[in-house]
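TEACHING EXERCISE
Course module: macromolecular assemblies
Task: Read the component lines below, then compare them to the predicted structure of the full complex.
Student: A.B.
Group: 4
Components provided:
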Amino acid sequence: NAGVTQTPKFQVLKTGQSMTLQCAQDMNHNSMYWYRQDPGMGLRLIYYSASEGTTDKGEVPNGYNVSRLNKREFSLRLESAAPSQTSVYFCASSLTSNANTGELFFGEGSRLTVL
Amino acid sequence: QKEVEQDPGPLSVPEGAIVSLNCTYSNSAFQYFMWYRQYSRKGPELLMYTYSSGNKEDGRFTAQVDKSSKYISLFIRDSQPSDSATYLCAMNAGANSKLTFGKGITLSVRP
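Instructor-supplied answer key:
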């Protein structure tokens, strides 16, 4: 039972390089999210997709793009990486965006370092 | 003022201690309150969920919400080394609203 799978788990980039973080869930969830977690800042929402075919900006979208490829997959792209994007990135999913329990299922994270 | 404030920690307690973790918030529209637990180098997982004011108990864990004071707490009784983790409070206003997380507090339970 994989849940939410993120790849890669670790990545080192040079300033200006681009990369895509991949996320897939096997729980038939409708909503998917990308967060970043930084020391002293907590979890901050970058982008989310309430359902297949829709994406919306979260709290800190600048410098990122997303693609909801299908119901299972939601990717996050850094077009021109900056040192400020050094962080741990978490993908999450939930049954629906209207889930009042707020239960998000998180992946194990992708640790990105931008030099 | 941040919407959700959480004691920064870290917190270190001996095994068997009672632990109290707290968050305050400013948005009176928040109705749903959660506690997530995050082990080192893992993603957060939902630990407790409470709607509106009141208490909810699950084994050694009790979640408490006081909406009049805009204050939520998580109590851990008979704490164990396996409880060592980062605890994040989270809350939202209901349908179509996104979760707002506290910054998290790291708890260490010493054997």
